[in-house]
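Moderator note: this is an archived Q&A kept for reference. The question asked for a predicted structure of one protein chain; the sequence and the answer are reproduced below.
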Amino acid sequence: MGILTDWLAEWIKGLLVSGILGNLGGLFDRVNEQVGDIAVTVGMTPWAFNPGVFNLIRTLSETVVLPIAGILLTFVMTWEFIHLIIDRNNLNEVDTWIFFKWIFKTFVAVLLLTNTFNIVMGIFDVAQNVVAGAGGIISGTTAISPDMMTTLEAELNLMEVGPLLGLWLQSFLIQIVTVIMNIVIFIIVYGRMIEIYILTSLAPLPMATLTNQEMSSMGHNYLKSLLAVGFQGLLIMVCVAIYAVLIQSIAVSGDPIGAIWAALGYTALLCFTLFKTGSVAKSVFSAH
């Protein structure tokens, strides 16, 4: 009877060890996939992310928003011309150079307005080049090696059935948390791209104010917002890379149960930091 009990205990223990290794191995695989997928997705330009949506936004911007921006530019440059005259004693002291100055500023303003999309895409190209360059480094240094599972398996084989059962339940829980984390990452990554499209659609309006000293703060804040959203992708990848490095300690820790709870803590921390990337990027670039 004792032999049968020992065999049954060993069989259950083997099942639990296999289940734990399967859960954690799947977790490690998803971490590797997440780092790679985010590096690719976040590194895409608005055109490459979804050409259909990009063309829609560009059409709306050029056919709906741009005419309104042209009216705004007319008002801004008229206001600028009036101030130039008032500043010179209502034409009592007029230098011809102020008219050339106004003509030049108007030319620059029209040039900026007609090339708004090129300017916006140029800003995102710079940001995405930085993100793509960092993606290759991050993806190459955060890969979780399958060899780490050997160390964990040896530690699990030394445990009894009771602790293994609790550890299996905890590893199953972390599987569910990982699914939630995937949803959070999806919302943040795709939400960022939608924010980019929204900012791009309204680009002509703030660009129409850049040449006016009194109203240029609108355009400056807009450009800062573009830079913040662009470089938010880098912050997202840094957060996931830090998480991937921390999660590696699961497979080499001398305390499997503690490692599981540490993974849960790291996962919750990742979700929190991902939500903070937008506000951190805006604070860095002083965007409102």
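Archived answer notes: The mean pLDDT is 77.
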